[in-house]
Amino acid sequence: MCLATVYKDSDDTVICRNVSKLTVEEDTVIIRDIMGDETVVKGRILMVDLANSIVKLICD
To answer: For residues 8-42, b (16+ Cβ closer than 10 Å) or e, as one string?
Structure first.
């Protein structure tokens, strides 16, 4: 299983670890971790690095 860490691009702050699912709805990114907890962020995906399990978001 490949789990990701989601970072805020502006300052590399960790938004969420052990992320198993990302859902994009217009200008919102819904992040779900392996425990099923959801974090909702207003913004968009800037970059996904699958080899290193990194996702960077541009947050509004």
So the answer is: bbeeeeebbeebeebeeeeeebebbbeeeeeeebe
The DSSP call for residue 18 is: E
- Going 15 to 46 to 23 to 20, the CA torsion angle's sign is negative
Q: Walk along the chain (60 residues) in steps of 10 and give the mean pLDDT of each run.
A: 92 96 97 97 97 95
- pTM: predicted TM-score of the whole model, two decimal places: 0.93
Cα–Cα dist 21/12, whole Å: 20
Instruction: Report the alpha-carbon distance of residue 16 to residue 56 in Å, rounded.
Output: 11
Tokens matching residue 53: 């399990």
